[in-house]
Structure formats: structure tokens, C-alpha cells
Automatic annotation (TrEMBL):
It comes from Aliiroseovarius crassostreae. GO terms for cellular component: cytosol. Residues 1-34, 104-123 are annotated as: Disordered. One of its GO terms (molecular function) is DNA-binding transcription factor activity. This is XRE family transcriptional regulator. SMART domains: HTH_XRE (SM00530).
Amino acid sequence: MSHFILASNPKGPVPPGQRKGHDVLQTDPTKPQSLGADLRALRKQRNLTLTELAERLGRSVGWLSQVERDMSDPSISDLRAIAKALGVPMSLLFAHASAPAEEKGYVVREGSRRPMGSGDEGLREELLSPDLTDDFEMVHSTFAPKSAMQTPANRPTQEVGYIISGRLDLVIGGRSFSVGPGDSFRIKHEPYEWANPYDEPAVAIWVIAPPVY
């Protein structure tokens, strides 16, 4: 992920893509894990073309292409619009700013995980992968007590989960399972749903391929 800083009304020449009077997210194109690369990965995971996403944003294809190539710095309002168009929390688009330069793209410290999803249904998800450009994503999932999935999911992915603590009830392809600490499971192109009817949170590591966030 690229390092970023927030800047308002900077003095001197205005960098490409920066609009006076607006905060901008300044990316560092020398870093291999960049904001642009993450945006491109999220767009492709949703099978959106540059044209389709640009139309949703009300921006030009050229501008969006420059953002994905780290040649233009989107404003905070741009990032908010992009997050909404892609259906992700805005926080997912921000780099691990506190990570040392030598760790970016390699290590994610516990306090630097990026939140994912909406937090609905009592599920809290945090990204364990250093960025969004891999063929899979690793997620730290916490299921609140007495919570349950409201609508079964059915997505074209292969997913593997490992329970760290607590218990979780699963229905995978019509079959019911109860899993606890040390248990693992696989979901392969099948409808599934989860529930935690117990009195303690369930914590799991979830690997999803291809990425869905």
C-alpha cells in the first residue's frame, strides 16, 4: 500500500489531479502497493470497466485511469464517491499509514488492520492481507453472540475458514455443521449461511478466492 498524507490548500504548484480548497489523498507511485492498484483490483473484482465506473462517479475515463496509475491524486470527496460506487467502506481505501516503509506490502500489524464490510448482522471483518491485489484475500472475522446471517450467500468463490475461538453454526450446501476452536471448513461455489447462537463471540480466519471485497 502507498503511504499517504492529507493536505489542504497546499502552497506552491498544485499537483496533477489536486483541486484547490479540497483535501486530497496523495499517493506515492514509487511504492508497489498503491491506492491506484487497490482501486483497479476492486473494480475488476466487480467486473466493472473503466467506463462503467467513471459513469457511476460522473468523472472522465481519463481521470479514473490516471488515478488507477497513481498519476492523479483523488480528493477525499472523490474517495468517498468511489467507495460508495464499489460498495466498500471508505476506510478500506486507506493505506496502513503507521506501517514502517520496509513492512508495507509484507506485514500487517494487529492495530493496522483495515475494516471491511458494513458491520451488519453482528459481523466485524478486518483485512489481514497487505493489499487487495492478490488472487485471494485473508480476513479476520468476529461474529457477535446471538447474531446470524439474514440472507444466505452464494458467490462464485472457494473459501476456507479456521475457527480460533468460540463456536459457529454453518449451513453449507444444505448441510448443517457446528464448528469450534481448531476446526476448519470449506465452501466451494455453494450457498451458505452462518449463525452464532451462543453467549460468546466466535473468531475465525477466512480465506476467499477470488477476492470479493
